[in-house]
Amino acid sequence: MSVNYGSKRTVVGAHYGLRDWLSQRVTAGLMALFTLIVLAQVIFSRGPVSYDKWAGIFASQWMKVLTFSVIAALLWHVWVGMRDVWMDYVKPVWLRLALQIFTIVWLTGCAGWAIQVLWRL
Predict the structure, then answer these.
(1) What is the largest CA-CA distance in the chain?
(2) Residue 70: burial class (beta carbons within 10 Å; 0-12, 13-18, 19+)
């Protein structure tokens, strides 16, 4: 006969634990590496830091693709964090669902805006 001490634990969420933890670390590492690449381009280029220099850094296609990849990583990083905040602190299911939908719509809009900025659509 087993004895159950204490109150019964209520587990909520989808048990994303390790996957979310790892995705947060990988996306943060990618963003840090991108920051170092951009800083290196600014530091090792000649002349004053101006709009032309910034436009030159982001003019090449590989830099646009890399930048959008980092933006996608940032959006995923934000989604994982906000989803966890909503699941942990917002108890009414209808409100949590509404906030998650709002977050998805907002992040999708941010991705569209990033595409417009990078490729001037």
Answers:
(1) 78
(2) buried
Model confidence over 28-75: pLDDT tens digits? 999 999 999 999 998 998 888 889 888 889 999 999 999 999 999 999
Q: Which residue has the tokens 């959008």?
A: 68
Q: Are 42 and 89 in contact (CB under 8 A)?
A: no
Cα 115 to its chain centre, rounded Å, is 15
Phi and psi, residue 46, nearest 5°: -90, 155
Q: How many CA atoms lie within 13 A of 23 on its CB side?
A: 16
- Is the pTM higher than 0.90? no
Domains within the chain, CATH numbers bracketed: 17-119 (1.20.1300.10)
What is the tens place of the pLDDT at every residue in 65-109? 999 999 999 999 999 999 999 999 999 999 999 999 999 999 999
